[in-house]
Amino acid sequence: MGFLSGVECSICGAVHDPKQLLTVCDKCGQMLVARYHLDRVAAAVTKADLARRPPGMYRFRELTPLEDGEEPVTLGEGGTPLLRLPRLGSHLGLPHLLAKDEGQNPTGTFKARGLGMAVTKARTLGVRGLVIPSAGNAGGAAAVYAARAGLPVAVVVPRDTPDAAVAEALLAGAHVFTIEGTIATAGKVVGAVARELGWFDLSTLKEPYRLEGKKTMGLELAEQLDWSAPDVLIYPTGGGTGLVGIWKAYTELAALGWVKGGPPRFVAVQAEGCAPVVKAWAEKSPVTAPWENPVTNAPGLRVPSPFAGRQMLEVLRDTGGAAVAVSEAAIVEAQKLLARTEGIWTAPEAAATLAALLRLKEEGRVERQARIVLLLTGAGIKNPPPHLPLPQDLTGPSDTLLRRVKAALGSS
Ligand SMILES: *Cc1c(COP(=O)(O)O)cnc(C)c1O
Ligand SMILES: [Zn+2]
User: Fold this and answer.
1) Burial annotation 227-239 (CB, 10 A radius, 16+ → b, else e)
2) Mutation to probe ligand 1, out of 115, 137, 155, 235 (largest number of atoms < 8 A from CB)
3) pLDDT tens, 344-391?
4) CATH for 75-412, among 3.30.710.10, 3.40.50.1100, 3.75.10.20, 3.40.605.10?
């Protein structure tokens, strides 16, 4: 029977039956949200029980939509480390700086959590095929979980999507299509394909369970912080499921009485070339407006009209948060800084969190003693930077080789 009490519209509250395959609200077309019998969860499991379970996102099974006995489609997602960043922290004068490294997930990004969960529920509820628009990483993750579930999948991505994500999807046997434009253009095609073929549309927040997978980042974070929240959580924001998911985790944990204190202050980070949430936040608008000509080298942030704009802005308001746009140059610098000080090669989207922190620090908007978490959403290897210096090549007579190596090392 599981612990899901129902699936509810986030706007009009209409209740939907989780035994059915659900997309968006029947009544108003807005996003649906899973609700739980939290009293039953509290009666069924304690924090001490959780501590004895193996790592990974299904240790929080009672707070997921899985029914009794339902087997997840899994590659071992979740259980990512919360790393202390002492060298970077001392460089910045922020002794309590932490990073949740979602790059250590299968597929190299946190998208594994959401798509693992969504594909699990879609398989259980009997879909014929899956179709997804993506900036890259979601498509790759959808493809691998579809392969694992034995379901056909079609992925539509912008033409300039990083090679690794396209390769990941192709290798997993997905039908991959590229399109001129952004994820928004891809989304229109996907909607039409889903209607025509009767395949299931896995678009961000157009089904309720990707959010539940991403929510497990917040459950895990709370547990790793001994059941509390950081003061500040910095999140690179595209479609917004990660931000809204982590907030939902803290809301449910608070209702269970499992966490001390309130949720973190959420900082939504976007790229200057595509910042609909930052713009709406600055203008105190309750909804985002579509961003014209979105450009950024952080593909996960190139989401010009996020379906959950309203919900993200609510989270920022609710937690006394902020929204910050960072430049491409600042993202590149932050990526280098994190790699050099802590050895973490993170995705450009993730590096944007550090770029934002540097900005906030400069503007005097973070306190020295604050416990700050950078949510590093993906691994750098999914999207290598284009313009690195070439390594020195060592062909030639061996004595000159050694001399060249010594000269190079001596001057460092
Ligand atoms: C998708 C993605 C994002 C954006 O996350 P949302 O939850 O959609 O806002 C950030 N970083 C990476 C690496 C991504 O793949
Ligand atoms: Zn509704």
Assistant:
1) ebbbbbbbbbbbb
2) 137
3) 999 999 999 999 999 999 999 999 999 999 999 999 999 999 888 888
4) 3.40.50.1100
